[in-house]
Design goal:
The chain is 27% helix and 32% strand. With 113 residues, the chain is of the alpha+beta class. The strands form 2 sheets. A 3-stranded mixed β-sheet has the order 2-1-6, with helices on one face. A 3-stranded antiparallel β-sheet has the order 4-3-5, with no helix packed on it.
Length: 113
């Protein structure tokens, strides 16, 4: 379960920011998680809640925005959303595509006191 190591990394980053900005309590954490990151949101929430116990992050809401996979065809320039992991241009059927989004795993914001 790689969600535990991701949750630990998130917690480390948040605790560093908390120390830097003298945060007493984190209320919520907003994340962007790409479909290609293979992160299961429910598992990440569970792991995050578990390791946050006893820290300034305990009880914080973890808001996860899923980012769909989008690509651009390198042959015809069409930009499209990928469904069922089929990386084929719907316009010209080329397989030469550039992934534009869907690999994200970013902290977007923290709400803190």
């Amino acid at each position: 379960m790689h969600e535990m190591s991701i949750a630990q990394s998130l917690l480390n980053i948040i605790l560093q920011e908390g120390a830097t900005h003298q945060i007493r309590r984190v209320v919520s954490v907003a994340l962007k998680v790409g479909e290609l990151s293979s992160v299961v949101p429910e598992s990440l929430r569970f792991c995050f809640e578990l390791i946050a116990q006893g820290t300034i992050v305990e009880g914080a809401e973890l808001q996860i925005e899923r980012v769909p996979v989008t690509c651009r065809c390198e042959d015809c320039g069409t930009q499209f959303s990928v469904e069922h992991l089929l990386f084929v241009c719907p316009s010209c059927h080329s397989r030469r595509v550039e992934v534009l989004s869907g690999r994200e795993l970013n902290i977007q914001s923290l709400e803190a006191e």
